[in-house]
Specification:
Helices cover 37% and strands 20% of the residues. The chain is α/β, with parallel strands linked by helices and 389 residues long. A 7-stranded mixed β-sheet has the order 5-4-6-7-9-8-14, with helices on both faces. A 5-stranded mixed β-sheet has the order 11-13-12-15-16, sandwiched between helices. Strands 1-2 form a two-stranded antiparallel sheet. Strand 8, helix 6 and strand 9 form a beta-alpha-beta unit. The longest helix has 18 residues.
Length: 389
């Protein structure tokens, strides 16, 4: 039997009805994740629960750890062994992961960290959605390393962006954060599950030289060094200290430190276009543009559609990639529109980046903020559109 959805004919196997957290799991398995370590915490717990059931069915490994710090360390350890790895958390659990998240960035071990955001700080609003971790996702660890952060607004996007997160992590040999939220995580919606044969999956670049010739951190032109998994005869140092191409600590060598830190940034710059995703709706002639992300983009999309029905020239720029920030696309919006509205379920985080990207444009900037655990409804955004147009 064929089912119709958005003009497409799909089989019952292709069109599934899933919870957002469940979609993350199914997408991760499809992308090749075979290790998960985690600790239960609302509203991310379903990811752990479904992983515990599904991973053994596909030959993978699940570990419930004693806390979030250990969970992140276990994911990095699995990645050192060459396995695609994931962990998931929320609220204060994301804070605990930061130390080893920075370690993964430093030693260039790919893994995916899912943060199903909830209201905070601390225990805050543990069952309600929020968008308060945007800056923590970018700057939560110490030091100065790049990071990739993707943010879904629907269950289908959670599925698609999880696959992208695994691919990008493997491509760049770096941790990638999927910044979901309690609404997307607990929502149930239709998901289009692609044929596994049609998927483009990326596996990390492996060395082609024998162990005696292997230089573990000598990068190719893209800034990414070929990898050799533990247990395959390649022996080398993995240290959180600044290291040279051989992997040896070089904590007093300024030249090595400078070269390493610049290369960590270079590899993300090299692939920036391949990791930057946005959705655009009615931008061609928009006088007012809503810049939104995550669950708030759902309300923004409906508000823009309603505005168009009333003859108002509104448009939506949805940021599916938050970091690296899509500066050029936001700048273009600022050059074009008279006004930009930035609705967020925090006191203003992405709005600062929008202000930076559009500072020489003609658009006036209007933040909209809500921090009580409730969505910003479409009618509030509609009211704001009418105020500023």
């Amino acid at each position: 039997m064929l089912l119709r959805w958005e003009g497409r004919k799909l089989s019952a196997k292709q069109l599934r009805f899933m919870q957002g957290n469940e979609a993350v799991v199914e997408a991760a398995l499809l992308a090749g994740v075979r290790f998960f370590a985690g600790y239960p915490i609302t509203p991310a717990t379903e990811i752990l629960e479904v992983m515990a059931r599904r991973l053994p069915q596909v030959g993978g490994y699940f570990m419930q750890m004693e806390d979030e710090i250990a969970s992140m360390a276990a994911a990095v350890g699995a990645s050192i062994g060459g396995v695609k790895a994931m962990t998931a958390t929320s609220g204060p659990g994301f804070t605990l992961k930061q130390e080893n998240l920075g370690y993964a960035a430093m030693v260039e071990m790919p893994c995916v960290v899912v943060n199903v955001q909830r209201g905070g700080p601390s225990t805050g609003l543990p069952t309600l959605p929020a968008q308060g971790d945007v800056m923590q996702a970018r700057w939560g660890t110490h030091g100065d390393h790049p990071i990739v952060v993707l943010s879904p607004s629907s269950v289908n996007e959670a599925f698609e962006l999880t696959i992208q997160a695994v691919n990008i992590s493997e491509l760049l040999r770096t941790p990638v954060i999927l910044l979901s939220d309690a609404l997307v995580g607990h929502l149930r919606e239709k998901v289009v599950v692609p044929d596994p044969e049609s998927l483009v999956l990326i596996n990390r670049k492996m060395t082609q030289v024998p162990p005696e010739e292997y230089i573990p951190y000598r990068a190719d032109a893209d800034g990414v060094p070929p990898f050799a998994p533990r247990g395959t005869g390649y022996r080398f140092h993995v240290t959180s200290n600044v290291y040279d191409e051989e992997g040896h600590p070089a904590v007093t060598n300024h030249e090595v430190a400078d070269k390493l830190m610049r290369r960590l940034h270079k590899k993300l710059d090299y692939y920036r276009d391949q990791v930057t995703f946005v959705n655009q709706l009615y931008l061609d002639d928009a006088e007012v543009i809503i810049v939104a992300y995550g669950c708030t983009a759902r309300s923004a999309r409906e508000a823009v559609n309603n505005a168009r029905k009333e003859g108002l020239k509104a448009g939506l720029l949805q940021l599916k990639t938050l970091w690296p920030f899509p500066d050029e696309m936001v700048k273009k919006a600022g050059d074009q529109a008279k006004a930009i509205i930035v609705p967020e379920m925090n006191m203003g985080q992405v709005v600062g980046e929008v202000a930076r990207a559009t500072r020489k444009g003609k658009a006036d900037l209007f933040p909209m903020n809500r921090v009580d655990g409730r969505m910003i409804p479409p009618w509030d955004i509609m009211t704001k559109i009418k105020e500023v147009i």
